[in-house]
Design a protein that fits this description.
Elements (H helix, E strand, L loop, with lengths): L18 H10 L9 H6 L3 E5 L2 E4 L4 E4 L2 H4 L8 H13 L8 H13 L6 E5 L2 H16 L3 E5 L8 H6 L15 E4 L19 H13 L4 E6 L15 H11 L3 E6 L22 E4 L10 E5 L1 H4 L18 H16 L2 H16 L2 H4 L3 E7 L2 E9 L4 E2 L2 H14 L1 E2 L1 E3 L2 E4 L7 H16 L4 H5 L4
Parallel strand pairs: 3-14, 5-6, 5-7, 7-8, 8-9
Antiparallel strand pairs: 1-2, 2-3, 4-10, 9-10, 11-12, 12-13, 12-16, 15-16
Helix pairs in contact: 4-11, 5-11, 12-15, 14-15
Length: 456
């Protein structure tokens, strides 16, 4: 559907040979270093233009962008209002952290959007930088230095945030800073305690409490948790989980840090994912969708929390680019659009439609073990055996990812899960087309056992 609303027939997918894209990619690799995201290396997709939820590559192929840079594309590519506002800002003033019209506009928008008592914000440039700042703030508030995080969590790649991140992301990068320990996350599809919700009584929370008792020296500063675990495949914990963790934090005189890099600003069907529960965290980290492509992140807390020293000392919580006018203008414009157009409500409604359309894959697609999500943060977990839930290997995930791209839907991956982050503004007809493409494509991919003719 075009911006004017007229129906435009589109042949989605890779229809033309990627001649220009391949040449472009090869030229880039003459200088670009290694370590790019795996999905980028798999696809070698080179973009010519993008509009809303549609990306066109350099060979004229058009695909639906449900990767969304992991949730960054909140208001759609080339959103006319965003383009206009950022163009104006770039021609006015770009460098410096002094007071500006852009920052005042951002403040006024956020005053309408933020929920008391979390009414103070400090800007940074990237997710890991904001997480590091949140750790410093927690230390300032509590005077303590230990942190509890969770299996499957991802919080960044600098030393403090990497210590919170579990799994392969920190492989061969030790030793990590001391005073960090982790506990099982509430992943009900793969319960690490081999229990079933709700009869488990949130035993994973009890496990977290026991980890603290056994490993802490009495200096727990914060529990750090994602309300939906993004990189692990948009794992949604059961009701009551976040409030229970908040209770554990209080029990140990610690704060609760809610990492909403991927879930904040409407993505899950609420302004922030924690609002689905009767809980208010002490500190929230946000980014990605708040800038619609401009690199900006933030720490949000109450005035009282942020007044803690040394975090509140001059220059102690600043960032080189954090309050630059372009960043402030990006936040003011993006959050203004999300708020005014009620995109969180839209994400809640469309998310339910997505789940209704995708959940039959658990029964009809050989590789699909689980379909889950909250709002427009969705996960399709791939397995080679639905009974044992043996995870699909990287080769199988790559096959599914490339098959979907070939058919016309670009997704993100995380472990053995396909992750979907369509823009909150996605056209409903395009959303329906994407669901149809995903279902047809995944149903056509046999399990590895079926391909080899043997049982696993």
């Amino acid at each position: 559907m075009t911006r004017e609303g007229s129906i435009e027939p589109v042949a989605w997918g890779i229809r033309e040979p990627a001649v220009r894209s391949r040449a472009h990619w090869s030229a880039e690799q003459e200088t670009i270093g290694p370590g790019l995201q795996a999905v980028m290396l798999w696809a070698r997709f080179c973009v010519e233009s993008a509009d809303g939820a549609v990306i066109t590559d350099q060979d004229g192929n058009r695909v639906l962008d449900f990767q969304g840079a992991g949730g960054v594309n909140s208001i759609g590519h080339a959103n006319p209002r965003f383009v206009e506002e950022m163009t104006r800002q770039l021609s006015d003033w770009t460098a410096g952290a002094f007071g500006s019209a852009a920052r005042l506009d951002m403040v006024r928008v956020l005053q309408e959007y933020l929920e008391a008592p979390l009414d103070r914000i400090q800007l940074y440039s990237g997710g890991t930088e904001a997480v590091e700042a949140a750790l410093r703030l927690a230390k300032s508030v509590t005077g303590k230095h230990e942190f509890l995080s969770f299996w499957g969590g991802f919080h960044g790649k600098t030393m403090g945030s990497l210590a919170l991140t579990t799994g392969s992301a920190r492989g061969r990068l030790g030793p990590l800073p001391p005073g960090n320990f982790s506990a099982p996350y509430a992943n009900c599809y793969r319960c690490p305690l081999k229990l079933t919700y709700p009869s488990c009584g949130l035993a994973c929370v009890d496990s977290a409490r026991e980890v603290i008792k056994q490993h802490s020296t009495g200096a727990l500063a914060a529990i750090v948790v994602e309300p939906v675990q993004g990189r692990s495949g948009n794992v949604v914990p059961p009701p009551g989980y976040l409030p229970a963790l908040a209770s554990v934090a209080r029990e140990f005189d610690a704060v609760l840090i809610d990492d909403e890099m991927m879930t904040g600003f409407g993505r899950t069907g609420a302004s922030f994912a924690y609002q689905h529960e009767p809980v208010v965290p002490d500190i929230v980290t946000v980014g990605k969708g708040m800038g619609a492509g401009y690199p900006v992140s933030a720490v949000i807390a109450s005035a009282e929390t942020m007044s803690a020293a040394p975090f509140s000392d001059p220059s102690a919580s600043s960032s080189s680019f954090g309050a630059f006018p372009a960043a402030c203008r990006a936040v003011a414009t993006t959050v203004g659009i999300i708020h005014e157009e009620k995109l969180a409500d839209r994400a809640e409604r469309l998310g339910k439609q997505f789940l209704d359309g995708l959940r039959p894959l658990v029964d009809t697609a050989p590789l699909v073990g689980d379909v889950r999500g909250l709002g427009l943060a969705l996960g399709i977990e791939l397995v080679v055996d639905k009974q044992t839930k043996e995870p699909a290997d990287t080769a199988t995930v790559r096959q599914a990812y490339l098959a979907l791209l070939e058919a016309g839907v670009l997704v993100m991956t995380g472990g053995n899960t396909l992750r979907l982050y369509p823009p909150l503004t996605v056209d409903e007809a395009q959303a329906a087309e994407a669901v149809d493409i995903i279902c047809r494509t995944l149903r056509a991919i046999p399990s590895p056992a079926a391909r080899t003719g043997g049982a696993r």
